[in-house]
Amino acid sequence: MESLSGPLTYSGRDYTEEEFEELRKNVSEERKKDPFIRLLLKASWEDARGILNANREMEGNCGDEVFMKYYERHCACQGKLILPEKAFYDVEVIDVWEMTKKTVLEQVNGEVQIPLPGKEGIAVMARKCV
């Protein structure tokens, strides 16, 4: 983070009340059997917003130079970044607990799939190639 040319701007996505109401209307009978979905459907918008937005990955960017995503407690084995098509990026996987980083993709752009180690505390950083 200290090596970035400026601060990160949040570029993730928050759920809206309209999306939540749409979810409520369109949930299948099969999904209504899931205890988490049943709880979510009974929740007020304020409570549901906290639940939905607490479980998202955090994304940010520093202009078009750097794009980052932090998976927090998610144990994903694959991630996705959508990078600008007009430039190329090298992508690193950062383990914040072990304090390691590894380049996993080079010279990529557009929508990229990133292999992840499937454990907590993982971030990815795509840095624009010079």
Keywords for this entry:
single chain, 130 residues, alpha+beta, 6-stranded antiparallel beta sheet, two-stranded antiparallel sheet
Q: Can you describe this structure in just a few lines?
A:
The protein is α+β, with helices and mostly antiparallel strands and 130 residues long.
Helicity range of the residues?
A: 10-25%
Q: How much is the average pLDDT?
A: 89
Distance between the termini: 19 Å
Number of strands: 8
Give the uncertain stretches in residue-range form.
none
Shape: elongated
Going across the major beta sheet, what is the strand order? 1-2-3-8-5-6
How is the topology of this model organized?
Elements: E1 9-10, H1 17-26, H2 35-42, H3 45-54, E2 58-62, E3 66-70, E4 78-83, E5 89-95, E6 100-108, E7 110-115, E8 122-128
Antiparallel strand pairs: 1-2, 2-3, 3-8, 4-7, 5-6, 5-8
Structure notes:
This protein has helices at 17-26, 35-42, 45-54; strands at 9-10, 58-62, 66-70, 78-83, 89-95, 100-108, 110-115, 122-128. With 130 residues, the chain is an alpha+beta fold. The protein is elongated and about 50 Å long. The strands form two sheets. A six-stranded antiparallel beta sheet has the order 1-2-3-8-5-6, with no helix packed on it.
